[in-house]
Structures are given as C-alpha cells and as structure tokens.
Design goal:
Blueprint lengths: L22 E6 L20 H13 L4 E6 L39 E5 L16 H7 L4 E7 L1 H14 L3 E10 L7 H12 L2 E3 L7
Helix pairs in contact: 3-4
Length: 208
C-alpha cells in the first residue's frame, strides 16, 4: 500500500485527508513509567498527551478505532537489569507504573493491546506477539495514525511492523518523544521510519 518513502506530508497540497473511514489511531505506550517521575521516564514524555487527546477526540467523534498499546511485563521480565536486560523494572503488570497516563483521555471502547507479557520475551512493537494486525484487518482498517512513546524504540518498531503488514502509516510528529540513549537516536529513528515508507504529519493536519 505504502510507497511514499521519505515524504513529510507537511505541505497542505500533498498530505492525505486523514482520518478517513478506514483509519485507526495507534497510541503507543503512554504509561506512567514512561512519563515524568516514572522508572523509565522519556524526556518531555508528557508533552505527547495534549496532541494525542486532540487526535483521540477526532477519531472518537467519527466512530473510528482507537488502539492503545502497553508494556505489560511480569516482575521478572527478561528486559530488566536484574534479569540481565538493559532497562530498569518498568510497566509491571497491575502496578501504577503500568497504567496509562492519567491525562490521556482514552475512549470507553479503546482497544488495549498488551505486549511483552511473558518473562522470556520482549517486544518493542505493538504487533509483535499480539493479534493487533488481525484485529485491524477485521475492522477493515487500511491506514494508521501513530503517536506515543518512545520514538526510537516502541514507536519505531510499531511503525516498521505496521508497514510490513501492509498498512499506510502516518506518524504524528508533535505527539512523539524519544529516549535518545545515544545522541541522535531520535533523528535516526525518524529517518528509518521515513525510509520505510511512513509519512509525517502534525495533529493539526487531521480533519474533523
């Protein structure tokens, strides 16, 4: 579906009209542990909430699917430093840190996708080890609008997998933030997503 490599879509004359009747909104991992004060806080991570809420309101008003992915780790998850992984414990199942950010205005019919929910398997993508693709196919979705945390990990991998599953993907540039473990990770992630075929838009580009 998507062959628009490297296109930014910030020009009003070239960007698509979104959302359309076959669009869905994907909110990636906006959870307390990734927000300020969390155990694995993304710098300025809470800045994604206001633009995401604008997008949620537009999609909900049209009756279009809103999906929220989440890390849902057991306490002994393989990604944690105590188990030989690279991250501090975060988003442990049924803890406050795993809850969605309190300011995120998710609709009552939000589709929640839990990932990396067994101790021996990690997943940065909302599609990895889940039924997300199948659920979107059943809903006749062909294009995805994506925002959330973090640009250089779970957003990047979710976008890559979405493209590989045949969806058109548009990333909300003002509704993503990066961990930037290595300087330049954010910029590299954006280039990777563009090279793979994702378009970049702003929340203000969405139509009601």
């Amino acid at each position: 579906m998507n062959d628009k490599r490297g296109v930014n879509y910030l020009n009003k004359n070239t960007r698509p009209q979104l959302p359309d009747d076959r669009s869905a909104l994907i909110i990636v991992d906006v959870q307390n542990d990734f927000l300020p004060g969390g155990s694995l806080a993304v710098p300025d991570g809470d800045a994604v909430i206001a633009p995401l809420n604008r997008a949620i309101a537009l999609f909900a008003a049209r009756g279009l699917p809103v999906v929220a992915t989440r890390d849902w780790h057991p306490a002994d998850h393989c990604s944690f430093t105590e188990q030989g992984g690279i991250w501090p414990p975060h988003c442990v199942q049924d803890t406050a840190g795993a809850r969605f950010g309190p300011g995120l205005e998710l609709p009552d019919d939000v589709i929640v996708i839990s990932k990396a929910d067994t101790k021996d398997r990690d997943a940065y993508s909302g599609f990895e080890g889940t039924d997300l693709a199948e659920r979107l196919y059943e809903l006749k979705v062909s294009s995805l609008v994506v925002g959330g945390l973090a640009t250089d990990y779970c957003v990047l991998n979710t976008v890559r997998d979405a493209l590989s599953h045949g969806f058109d993907v548009y990333v909300l540039e003002d509704a993503i933030r990066a961990v930037d473990v290595k300087p330049g990770d954010a910029e590299r992630a954006v280039r990777d997503m563009q090279d793979a075929g994702a378009g970049f838009i702003h929340v203000g580009d969405l139509s009601g």
